[in-house]
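the two lines:
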Amino acid sequence: MNQRRVDITALLLAYAQAEPPEDVRAVMRLSALDWAACGIAGHRDGAFDCWAATMTSKGPATRFDGRGGTLADAALVNGTLSHALDYDDTHFAHIGHPSVAVIPATLAVAEAQGASIEQMIDAAAVGAEASVAVGLWLGRDHYQVGFHQTATAGAFGSTVAAGRLLGLSADHMRAALGLCSTMASGLKSQFGTMGKPLNAGLAVRTGVEAAMWAQAGLTSAEDTLAGPLGFGVTHHGEGADVPFGWRMGSVSHKFHACCHGLHAALEAVRGVDLSGARQITVHTHPRWMTVCNQPSPDTGLSAKFSYRHVLAMAAHGCDTGDITAFSDACARDPALVAWRDRVEVEADDTLTEMQVRVVVDGVAHIHDLDAPLPFEVRQKRIHAKARALVGARADEIAQAIDDDDLPCFAQLLTS
Amino acid sequence: MNQRRVDITALLLAYAQAEPPEDVRAVMRLSALDWAACGIAGHRDGAFDCWAATMTSKGPATRFDGRGGTLADAALVNGTLSHALDYDDTHFAHIGHPSVAVIPATLAVAEAQGASIEQMIDAAAVGAEASVAVGLWLGRDHYQVGFHQTATAGAFGSTVAAGRLLGLSADHMRAALGLCSTMASGLKSQFGTMGKPLNAGLAVRTGVEAAMWAQAGLTSAEDTLAGPLGFGVTHHGEGADVPFGWRMGSVSHKFHACCHGLHAALEAVRGVDLSGARQITVHTHPRWMTVCNQPSPDTGLSAKFSYRHVLAMAAHGCDTGDITAFSDACARDPALVAWRDRVEVEADDTLTEMQVRVVVDGVAHIHDLDAPLPFEVRQKRIHAKARALVGARADEIAQAIDDDDLPCFAQLLTS
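prediction for all of em together
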């Protein structure tokens, strides 16, 4: 741990009380729609059905699987299901998925409290900011050694979000953060298994429980983030300096149902007619060469890790934003397989991990995922993505958010 | 991490299948009585009432607070309440409290499965052994940096115990251990707060959930204890070599409701008439001088950390095994306060932390907490302790264990 420059607990208490600016609120409303669509589709996918059925509590909180449950169970189930497809939003400042870890917490508590969507959005915004701040404070060592920031930093975000909606006093919020410190967990070794979505669900539940339990009088040590034997020192935290600020305006939404390493290339050729292209070269950061450069995928899953195949899909008008597009049949489609041979992929260490240069018959198309998307473009694309995921339900959900109608929003989540 | 010499996951799978020897079973039966008495008394103490009431699920599993709940809620509540008084058993090999982390898991699953007490005892025994083995594998670094072995190693023990009773296949048990790796948590910074008992409850719940979820088909990475990005490397594990063996025969039961550092001194003078002693010198390991050598305590709580006061209690026939004996009135009793001046405490670095030498008017009385207690003595003293905690109920619980009557045992836990 570096010498402590920021009092991270005080910073989180400040987020819990802060009023998010309108641009952050606006992005959180979009994230709420994006989250809802990912969760509904994640439940419809069915992979987690048997697991979710083991949470048998009855209660007032809405679950994607249609069972009403306790706040804790709803938090766990909804957090997990909304991350099941790995299609939810990402913040690259600390590399975590903020919405899946905080929105389910705010929904559960907002329903129990009779709060409005706007109060839910405010709580989600400060919770997401808190998770990004904790993630930055923990730093890269924490992530590199093996912790999953979505889960660990996310649990603190969920605590702040749930605690705000419960109206915790500063003392209770401090206790809740202390309890979160002793509960938060989650390893990157789960990537590629059902344990990864579970990590998100656990983070949400931790926040809801920590906040509820602090309110019920459970005590905790005073400063268990940065203090002795605290979360930072035990979890390889760097203790980086993190000024108060609003960072959720630059959250990234996924518009392609494949590995994030492929997104910049797909964005670069968005609107470019590739159908007649003869020679395409993708220049990308060397890191991605071992991650998503499968030259000849033959399953839907492996196609999600192939520059050559996703560009073939783009050239043939397949919607890479549609999770059902990545089928085994698509991966083996003779027309696409033949077309893949027009694509070469080359490492270029002058590019960042977020940048790509796609040269189509001598014409370079570049894209940087770090460049902010204009709000109206982002809005339009999230609506389109949500419609691709859940059909007309997407418009009803967007309307419920616009109408500030929480019961309607919650009811639309169950299929 | 040292070079890996033991495959810790394989070791845990071996415990899950093993038949515990009869001497370990016999000690686990005593621990079950000890655990039950601690849990009933922990619930009657009332401090956790408001917290436990937030677990609102209905279900078949018995809870000390009389509410039937889901297996997960019962595991959480019972684990926490049985550690509330910090009066349960301790294993000094890794420094953890094994019974509170595994017995509640076995009770919840055994009730749901209609298993017998003997099956519950077997599962608790292998679970406790597994927790000690994981604790030894993680080693002192893990504990020193700030992790609470009762919680972290305990969660793996709970997983093995619950998984055995659920009859998990080896593949499912491996998945359960993987899920436990991404869920287990718990910091020592919670010591002295309600977060410490909570850590035990979380460990129990983690094990029950990991086992149930693996059975429901939740997948996990293959080797998330010793593997890359696994629990060991992320949680400062040493990866020590741990041969298969039975270690629960040497578990320690607490017979005095005060700091463990005082126990050796109280044991040394057990049966010695101190009422007429003029000069008593306690020679103890230097570590305890800053832990439990309060010279002039004036509250019940501070009396629990005072050699001078607990010896005064012993000299006056106060039962140091009775949790209600450590009252403010006792700490201020003029007769005891005056008698304390006969006691001096001196550090002696030739003694281990477990050893003490109490010199009474020139006669030395020594005790080593590491020396095993003959079974019949241990049995008699645990029965006496249980009676002091919960009265005649203790005999009924012991009878239910002898009769292998799980429904009766469970019913006796609720007050």
